[in-house]
Design brief:
Largest sheet: 4 strands, parallel
Mean pLDDT: 92
Low-confidence stretches: 1-5
CATH topology: Rossmann fold
CATH class: Alpha Beta
Distance between the termini: 50 Å
């Protein structure tokens, strides 16, 4: 079992919305990834208009002994948020939690694996429509 000092966490970092239904897919992903990765603390967090925000999620994790946090931006493409906001957020997180190692992945939509999965699923939907 992972020691408390090296416990890992993952933040699924999404945009957010004032419509509470918008969070449902991210909450399902949080639950599924938690089941898939026992011992890893997984939280969905949001940039705006939804709670928890990324700072709340990181604080919850550090309060629970997490010392390594991977942030996965749940965006399909690079845009103003990833170019302008993410570096500022990362700096603020590091300042608030100087003993925690934060790792940011590229945005989810840019991963080759994501592109392949989406193409496969879209092709299935196109075939099923015939």
């Amino acid at each position: 079992m992972t020691s408390q000092a090296s416990r890992k966490g993952v933040i699924l970092f999404a945009h957010g919305s004032r419509d509470p239904r918008w969070k449902e897919p991210f909450e399902k992903l949080e639950s599924r990834l938690s089941r898939h990765s026992p011992g890893v603390m997984v939280r969905a967090a949001y940039l705006q208009d939804s709670v928890p925000d990324i700072y709340q999620a990181a604080s919850e994790m550090t309060d629970n002994g997490v010392s390594q946090i991977t942030v996965i931006p749940m965006f399909l493409a690079v845009g103003a948020h990833s170019a302008n906001d993410f570096p500022k957020i990362e700096t603020r997180l590091k300042e608030a939690h100087p003993t925690v190692h934060f790792k940011w992945t590229s945005v989810l939509g840019e991963w080759d694996e994501t592109q392949e999965a989406l193409v496969s699923l879209m092709a299935e939907k196109i075939s099923a429509a015939d």
